[in-house]
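Lab channel / #folding
Pinned by the channel admin:
"Please post every new chain as: sequence first, then the structure tokens as a reply. Keep commentary short and put observations after the output so the thread stays searchable."

First post following the new format, from NK:
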Amino acid sequence: MNPMYIAIGVGAVVVLFIIFYIQISINEKKGVDSEDKKTIQNIVKRLVPDADTYTAAYGVWEEINFGGGRRSITTTTKYWYYAVAFKPGNIHVIPLSYEGGDVSYGKAISLTKDDLGMVNAKAGDCWVSFYDKNQQEIVSVIVGPSNTKDDKYHPVNIQQKEEYEAFVQFIKEFMTEVNESNHVTVTGKVGKPLKKAK
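Reply from TO:
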């Protein structure tokens, strides 16, 4: 193979990487105090009583399903978006919809220890699944530190490192409180919350 073609190929990859890196950096800077972040805060203020006493954050959930026949496998990914407001002992999860660049919201799901039969999460991670007294899933959510507008499935620029850290701590404490009161032990595995009895 001609060394010149190899050099051109390597150069093209480096240029694409630099462009990609610059785009991510721009989106991250935009997300620190973005309109998207203010929109989440305003939705929380509208729907959550005493909203100023809560930490407001943006949350998502992704679910990948595999299907297909003998010779082909298909994957389908579903996305859910949320505004989240939390403080010790209480969380509100507000469903969001992003259509054509506009955001709309549904009724808040308000959860306390008394509403829940189980909370499944992994200590130190930023995802959580909430279950009712019959151990049926109510809602699952991830509150990550960085969200950038990559494509139509990732519609916001929101940087929320402090909110993410607060959420990780909140989940750790809330999970302990709920699960101890219901005498359950969880796995910390997505979709498989209960440990099997020995």
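NK: The chain has a mean pLDDT of 86.
TO: also worth noting, The radius of gyration is 20 Å.
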